[in-house]
Write a structure and sequence with these properties.
The chain is mainly beta and 484 residues long. The chain has seven helices and 24 strands. The chain folds into two domains: 275 residues, Lipovitellin-phosvitin complex, beta-sheet shell regions (Roll); 146 residues, Protein Transport Mog1p, Chain A (3-Layer(aba) Sandwich), CATH 3.40.1000.10. Strands 1, 2, 3, 4, 5, 6, 7, 9, 10, 11, 12, 13 and 14 form a 13-stranded antiparallel sheet that branches. It starts with a helix and ends in a 22-residue tail after the last strand.
């Protein structure tokens, strides 16, 4: 039980003030570091007396190694609620072990194939404990670098969001080589990491400011120690974030491979359109041991790994409703906002913009009753929208290869003086099991949204429910699309 003093310190007002002060401090560090960049040469010779030159120039080298990672996170989640946001204690203890084969792909971009022996995290949020782990069929993972970011996916099938979050952590071993300088250095020399290297190191989707500096700190026999320090400002899933990093890596000079990486990461991330905010400190410890190369005839990296067709479907994520009533595949830009037995709410985020919202509900089984017709669905839409309804834009019906009867109706209208477009989908299988999908977006986002509703609806599979009662068959309520 908290004492009165502890309660006062932990009050929402004081926590909010503390959060602002921490964010202001981190921002000053970012701005100050960036201003200091003007005074830095690209490389600093801080130790003029050491004439020995170490040629550890940045180059992607093929490797096969065993990697062990431990990540520990402590901090607070900031969850949305009525009134002041909730501050929830967060603790994570994760362990990863995998064999990684690394090589250069197109344009010298890294491609790594991993076989995970272990991938497990114990997560505690305000005393509620859960375990996250990779499914057996997903233990083979490909990490591929694109022009935008690193992509992790499994040839065994689409990952879940929880599985992706488990393995997509700061300090990605496939990108350790990006920590190295662009030319030979002396002990004491320093160099700045470019924005791509910082984004990969800290798992940021966008970088607005960064000042992360590496320094060749010391050389003992064949082991070189590189210090990593700095700050970055960017975004993940459209949520602004401030990050500070402090750590070291150890490099084997003859092979020019990094054998160990230790990082401390402090991150202050704002709440996003579909994600909680948080203030955390993460400790990452990673060790890599070289393994004998695989004979050329037994290469584990598929020859078509560079092709876009290889991972179009595999980059999708799988989502299953909490009550087991349906399962679907979705683009990674969709994020789950809520998942209850009544409704699953997903939001489509594109470069920080809230583009659309999807409300998906498993309805009560119809049994022997005839399924809805297009006219039935249109009547229900008029009733649900009421004065917000303006007109129908289009409608269609079909029987598809899943054996589902599929209705789709698009309607235009407005809510709180904001013009909106609703796309209603109704799916029913031969057994009378049915699902409704309601997509909402503003007309200005039509091009961004494109056919995202069809992709979601076409991937959906209606399942036998695990238990509990479904919503009433005639309840097709419209959830108001929140404006930001």
């Amino acid at each position: 039980m908290q004492t009165a003093k502890e309660t006062h310190k932990g009050s929402p007002r004081n926590r909010h003030t503390g959060s602002l002060k921490r964010r202001q401090f981190l921002k000053k560090m970012v701005v100050g570091s960036c201003a200091g960049d003007l005074a830095w040469a690209r490389y600093d010779a801080l130790s003029k007396g050491n004439d020995k030159v170490y040629d550890i120039s940045r180059k992607l080298r093929s490797a096969r190694r065993s990697v062990a990672v431990r990540i520990r996170v402590n901090g607070r989640l900031q969850a949305a609620s009525t009134g002041e946001p909730q501050q929830l204690p967060l603790h994570v203890d994760g362990q990863l072990q995998y064999v990684e084969q690394l090589r250069a792909g197109r344009d010298n971009q890294a491609i790594a194939v991993r076989h995970y022996r272990q991938a497990l995290a114990r997560i505690d949020v305000a005393g509620q404990q859960t375990n996250s782990q990779l499914a057996a069929e997903h233990r083979r993972i490909i990490c591929r670098t694109t022009s935008r970011q690193d992509e992790l996916f499994s040839p065994g099938g689409p990952l879940t969001r929880a599985e992706l979050d488990l393995i997509d952590i700061p300090g990605n071993s496939a990108q350790w080589w990006m920590l190295l300088p662009e030319r030979p250095v002396h002990v004491g020399d320093a160099w700045l990491l470019d924005s791509n290297a910082v984004a990969s190191l800290l798992r940021l989707e966008a970088i607005s400011k960064s000042a992360v500096r590496c320094t060749l700190e010391k050389a003992v026999k064949s082991t070189l120690t590189i210090a990593i320090q700095g700050t970055a400002e960017g975004a993940v899933g459209g949520a602004a974030t401030l990050v500070r990093v402090d750590g070291h890596c150890q490099l084997d000079s003859p092979s020019q491979h990094i054998r160990q990486l230790d990082l401390r990461v402090w991150e202050d991330r704002q709440m996003g359109h579909a994600q909680p905010g948080f203030e955390i400190q993460a400790q990452i410890e990673a060790f890599a041991e070289p393994l004998a190369p695989v004979p050329s005839g037994d290469a584990v990296i598929p020859p078509d790994t560079d092709k876009n067709s290889w991972n179009d479907r595999l980059l999708l994520l799988e989502f299953q409703a909490s009550d087991g009533g349906f399962r679907l595949l979705h683009d990674r830009r969709w994020r789950v906002l809520a998942d209850t037995p009544e409704v699953s709410i997903l939001r489509y985020i594109e470069r920080g913009k809230l583009v659309a919202q999807a409300n998906i509900s498993r309805l009560a089984d119809r049994g022997a009753q005839p399924p809805w017709t297009k006219a039935t669905l249109q009547d229900k839409i008029r009733q649900s929208l009421g004065d917000n309804f303006t007109r129908f834009l289009e409608s269609s019906q079909r029987q598809d290869e899943r054996g589902y009867r599929v209705l789709r109706v698009r309607a235009a209208g407005s809510a709180e003086d904001v013009k909106l477009i609703w796309s209603y989908w109704y799916l029913v299988d031969r057994a009378g099991r049915q699902v409704s999908l309601i997509f909402t977006h503003e007309p200005k986002h039509t091009a961004l949204f494109a056919a995202a509703d069809r992709a979601l609806a076409d991937s959906l599979r209606i399942l036998k429910r695990r238990g509990g009662s479904a919503r009433q068959a005639d309840n097709t309520a419209v959830e108001r699309f929140p404006q930001r």
